[in-house]
Amino acid sequence: QRPLVFRQSNRAAEFIRGDEQPDNQELFRQQGIILHQLFSAIRTIDDVDTVLQQMEMEGMILSLLSKEKIQKLVHRALNNPIAKEWFSPKWKLFNERNIVRKNGIKAEDKRPDRVMISEDQSEAIVVDFKFAAPHNDHREQVERYKSLLSSMGYPSVKGYLWYVYTGKIQSV
Question: Is 125 within 8 Å of 87 (Cβ atoms)?
Fold first, then answer.
């Protein structure tokens, strides 16, 4: 029988060491988390500034990542015509919502970043935001989301990976 082992989180270790300036990799990771939360909170392009202000008031935006820098990155990303369409008001939107399916005696749940349903419910689009380099697992993740949406009865399901930093949108 193995004893339990407690491990210190990276953030706690940084605090104890007194690291005040995170390295580039940590800054990149923190920025990705903030941007992911931002994109998950906005319904349309018009919501960006309001959500960003809310995040700033809640202390979610770090001093190392200025509101202006994030704002510029988000607006640049949303200039992509495909992304701009995703953030238009025409969709019924499900941001960060669990999809639960019974799998034998267990329940399986998945949480896509953004699911958009057309007004007549004939089309569903699932988008997963990525703030890292492309990886094969990303495609598999979106394929699972598409499968779940198809099993829910949507006749046309499209899936995309959006690598926000590079602006690359991959159809899955």
Answer: no
